[in-house]
Amino acid sequence: MNTNDVIQKFKNRKPSILGEENYFKSSVLLPLIEKENETHILFEVRSMNLRRQPGDICFPGGRMDKEDQTPLHCAVRETSEELGLAEDEINDVIPLDYVVADMGRIIYPFIGHITNPNNIVPNEDEVGEIFTIPLNYLLQTEPEVYKINVQLKPEDDFPFDLIIGGENYQWQMRHIDEMFYKYNGKVVWGLTAKILNHFISQLK
């Protein structure tokens, strides 16, 4: 194969994330509602009956199905199922920056306006409760930030003889900033806090 053949092969290629087909993909919606003439953000508390992360605070959302045409479709579908809303009650759905997270996950966050919050009937199988936080409070409140150190640990049979430095190779240790928002006894943290902070920073 000559150089021109290689160039033609790649000429119109659109880049994506390496190995993206193996990633766990999900979408979430950061729901905006009007409450007492003020904009609030709605959160869910995951049902204690769920196998994964019971009791955690999150946004509506979930894993993309094969039937989901786009991440946006997934976010609206999941929000509709979890909050008992018709899909046409979820409007102005706009993408935020997507998250490539640990352990091979891609999360596609969106903001959206729930026009009839009085119609919300949470799915008890998935949602323990819902609550809201005023947007103005979040605009005026900085999250608490703590660091989690992440260190690489090779397997026992790792081929140190194949790398420069061998067993003395200086692996880079990194850290993750973990954010916490507190409001009326509720604590928003993890990826939900990360997405929330991104949203707030874009507003500012």
UniProtKB/TrEMBL annotation:
PROSITE patterns: NUDIX. GO terms for molecular function: coenzyme A diphosphatase activity; metal ion binding. Residues 23-156 form the Nudix hydrolase domain. Keywords: Hydrolase, Magnesium, Manganese, Metal-binding. Its cofactor is Mg(2+); Mn(2+). InterPro entries: CoAse, NUDIX_hydrolase-like_dom_sf, NUDIX_hydrolase_dom. It holds the Pfam family NUDIX. Gene3D superfamilies: Nucleoside Triphosphate Pyrophosphohydrolase (3.90.79.10). This is CoA pyrophosphatase.
